[in-house]
Amino acid sequence: MAGIERIVILTGAGISAESGIDTFRSAGGLWEQHRVEDVATPEGFARNPDLVLGFYDMRREALAKVEPNPAHRALARLEAEFPGELLLVTQNVDDLHERGGSKQVLHMHGELKSALCSSCGVRMPHDGPMLDRPKCPTCAMPSLRPDVVWFGEMPYQMERIYKALAVSDLFVSIGTSGAVYPAAGFVQEARAAGAETLELNLEPSEGSHFFAESRHGPAGELVPQWAEEVLQTRL
Ligand code: OAD
Q1: Which positions are catalytic?
Q2: Is the C-beta atom of 206 inside 6 A of ligand 1?
Q3: What string of DSSP letters covers 73-93?
């Protein structure tokens, strides 16, 4: 760990699992309860907007019933105390990193509490339902959609993420199955840059073999332990 100056962290649904948010690909997970094609593609939205708006309204409302867990808080502590550069990238659309204390979070797949206007393209914080078709505050059209990245759409801020990976000394992937690109490819970008690579996941992910080190267990235990190690090494 000595000599680590620039860390990129990628989180996925597994970091929020102990807070009570369903992951996508576990048994009984979100993609067993709902078809991806129906609720997470532009085509599904065009076919049945009420179904899609209702799905994200339900997930947004559910955020009020969950709290950040020790893994979210440990990353917030690391951000506050690590003297080098740290970029936290999440695939999650929940707000638990922010509520756990993280100040800078890059939501590459968008956010439940943000809206995107399909008419004028503006993005804005939004914390209410969308099924009732609220009007866009900018163009007044009733065309708000969830500001989440659907399959077939481009994730946010990829250039910034690749730049950070290219100069990273450590890449850490937490609670993600490694099933969805481009995020699943970050480990190889980091390796190409000469970075150390570490996976913290409940079980070996699809991409486990790309990591120099993998630790398996619940994020609520592994992440605070790892953050403590980083900070101790730096003291
Ligand atoms: P997945 O549901 O694919 O994977 C979650 C991972 O977290 C699995 O590898 C689990 O083993 C692990 N896990 C579960 N509980 C855990 C715990 N308590 N501690 C640590 N790990 C745990 O979720 P993601 O990888 O985040 O995209 O999915 C990636 C993307 O696919 C999502 O952002 C979403 C989805 O389709 C879009 O909707 C565009």
Answers
A1: 109
A2: no
A3: HHHHHHHHH-SSEEEEEE---
